[in-house]
Amino acid sequence: MPGENLSRDEARERAALLSVDGYDVSLDVRSAVGEAAGDGPRTFRSVTTIRFRCNEPGASSFADLIAPSVTAVTLNGRDLDPGQVFDGSRILLEDLAAENELVVDARCAYSRTGEGLHRFVDPEDGEVYLYTQYEPADSRRVFANFEQPDLKAPYRFEVRAPEEWVVWSNGAGERTDGVWRFAETKPISTYITCVVAGPYHYVTDSYERVFEDGTRLEIPLGALCRKGLAPYFDADDVFLVTKQGLDFFHDRFDYPYPFGKYDQAFVPEYNLGAMENPGLVTFREEYIFRGKVTRASYEGRANTILHEMAHMWFGDLVTMEWWDDLWLKESFADFMGAFSLVGATRFTDGWITFANRRKAWAYRADQLPSTHPVTADIRDLQDAKLNFDGITYAKGASVLKQLVAYAGQDAFLEGARRYFKRHAYGNTRLGDLLSVLAETSGRDMGAWARSWLQTAGVNALTPQVLLDPEGRVAELAVLQEAAESHPELRPHRVAIGLYRVADGRLVRYARAETDVDGPRTVVTELAGAEAPDLVLVNDEDLTYCKVRFDDTSLQTLREHLGDFTDPLARALCWSALWNLTRDALLPARDFVDLVLRFAGRESDIGVLQMLHAWAESALVHYAAPAWRAAGERLLAEGALTELRSARPGSEHQLAWARFFASVASGPADLGLLQGLLEGSAKIDGLEVDQELRWAFLEPLAAHGVADEGVLAAELARDDTASGKRHQVRCLAARPSAAVKAQAWAQLVESDALSNALVEATIAGFARPSQRELLAPYAPKYFEVIARIWEQRSIQIAMHVVRGLFPAAQDSPATLEATDAWLAAHASAPPALRRLVVEARDDLARALRGQACDAAADAG
């Protein structure tokens, strides 16, 4: 039988044949503590009973299970030979009855990759923590099931765990006779079932709501983390945002939260930002801040909390039929995260972050050769795994923002309300949503969907201004372009702002909102306006597009970018300039110069931190190699100037300190970092807490100033899981051939590292500034990636294939080597080829940017 990679066709055939009435899942995780038994993987017992129907009695099908061994399989009271029916990933089910009961007793393996039931040992105190993570298809690593989103069913879980542990699952639970038993869930998909177990620190609260009809809703709230993080856990703020979000969604969705309790678990070594398991949302524990962070970090956490909460309706209550329509949950949750963030919390500038950060992710993904429509063609589970990308999340959310402008907010929300009531606990496709939106808006959703959901690529919008003899606007038009590979020109609802410099400020004095369609659209509403210094197409960020500038506007930005009175307009211009840099239309050194001149005046801390990341990326990827050293000096000097002038103790000071550390390279800069660590140097107001110490140590390690002994001493000072990750990254960053060889062997020749330490080792190993040290690994990369893909879990394989691509060897020779591998591996798994093709495209884009930057120098 086929292996782990379930295809869409197989899933459809099985869904047409079977329907599931319920699961009883019994797990025994007492083996998580103590010594492992035997030489194989550490395992736990999993006993699953599935009650299901078959509409073609006598037919055959299969259940999913990935496990080292199966002890017993019973189908309708008939014992089956595990050796005959189980192949390591599937259980063959023959001669099915109209009503069936399957019982599977298996030994399943604990995970160290964040897939399935992850086992983590806290180095600080030796405590063991467990949690599950399944999306898209890893619940089969924990219990036997039908692993596809449209075979929903209710679940009853019971868990045997060490006596001192607490266990959580989707439903409310209690311990009796040494067993944790949990209330039966509503009908949900396999991938959002969840178990968390261990000696977690747990805090409780409650949410109450009385609706207009007098109905009272009470939701028990909980928040949990490892004991070692308890001193840093600001659960009150987590609960505050949670309650604000529940109020917001209840007001707009007119469908009470349907899953009983609402626990939120912050867990170690997590591969994602978070996961929307109903009743038990899981988050990466990095959302618990061990040191001082900026407001942007709190905003990011709040956005994630609200994103996952939106999933309770979009995704959990109503679920896509297959991963083709993943956008039906992720795009909506991404949009609703920003929508509720602005509407319900203290983070009222959330749309600025969305425009500047989330959409940058989308713009990059939408220009890769692997771009796809928001409604994607997902052939199998490997395709699904890779489609949790900037298209599905951020472009989809941007498209929904455009839809709100197109259909109207009231019609959009009324459509959502009808959608929930019509399809509660069911599965849907694109057409199900479009039909309710057509009802509520009166708009042609089919044409809109064809343009926005079923075609790929991003349009560029450029203003064209013609002035009359008196210096007024005779005609203002918007030109729309599309890439040759994706030529669709879409309808855009946009606002166009005219700006001028007045009293040293860049202010908007005229605005028009219009529909742009086709290659050229005349904006009649702005005829006769005074001549603008700047035209901003897509002012207020209503649509999804790349913004371009006419020559006058670009010159105004070069002189007055820091003078905007509107922070969103400024953020949109920064984003547009970054896209120009990535498209090799603006030299990288010009972008760096703009950051050095104007970033110090940026009021929005999230935008500032994004500018820091972009400036460093411009230097590393898009600057001409001959200019890199000069650019690095300029960035370090500029960062230090801003660091010293920032208000003492401010979040801007902290942001500049981190940026300075990331670009420091000269002896004086490294000496200052060392002095700040040792206490011999001071910057007024800058508190060098433990997280900042590690941020300073990494460049010192990378430049050979901090050796293994220094890093060991720092780990002794911070002997925690977080400290270990930092130390591993710093160790791999040291400028030594032996260090790089050791890191490569740990990543490629061994699977001993956990997912978190794989990420940390890659981050330290692949430092762009160490190009000569990394050069020998370029040919080795192409020799090993097929084997890595075959032998490792998909999560670890993705980390290795993406993270070790020889991007630092940015030359045509690396492009040729990549093309040679692709030509020689035409039959490689499509998901692996996609990762290599994406890396190749990033490299080709970098080379075009470097040529643009070099031409600027020559000019």
SSE order and pairing:
Blueprint: H1 8-17, E1 18-28, E2 43-54, E3 61-64, E4 69-75, E5 78-80, H2 82-85, E6 90-93, E7 99-109, E8 116-121, E9 128-133, E10 155-160, E11 166-169, E12 173-176, E13 179-182, E14 195-198, E15 201-210, E16 216-225, H3 235-253, E17 262-267, E18 274-275, E19 280-284, H4 295-311, E20 319-320, H5 327-344, H6 350-365, H7 381-386, H8 391-407, H9 409-423, E21 427-428, H10 430-441, H11 445-452, E22 460-467, E23 473-481, E24 492-502, E25 505-516, E26 520-522, E27 534-539, E28 546-547, H12 551-560, H13 567-582, H14 588-598, H15 605-622, H16 628-645, H17 651-663, H18 667-678, H19 690-702, H20 708-717, H21 721-733, H22 737-749, H23 755-765, H24 771-774, H25 777-791, H26 794-803, H27 812-824, H28 830-858
Parallel strand pairs: 1-10, 16-17, 17-19, 20-21, 22-28
Antiparallel strand pairs: 1-2, 2-7, 3-6, 4-5, 4-7, 8-9, 9-14, 10-13, 11-14, 12-13, 15-16, 18-19, 22-23, 23-26, 24-25, 24-27
Helix pairs in contact: 3-4, 3-5, 4-5, 5-8, 6-8, 6-13, 8-9, 9-10, 13-15, 14-15, 15-16, 15-17, 16-17, 17-19, 18-19, 19-21, 20-21, 21-23, 22-23, 23-26, 25-26, 27-28
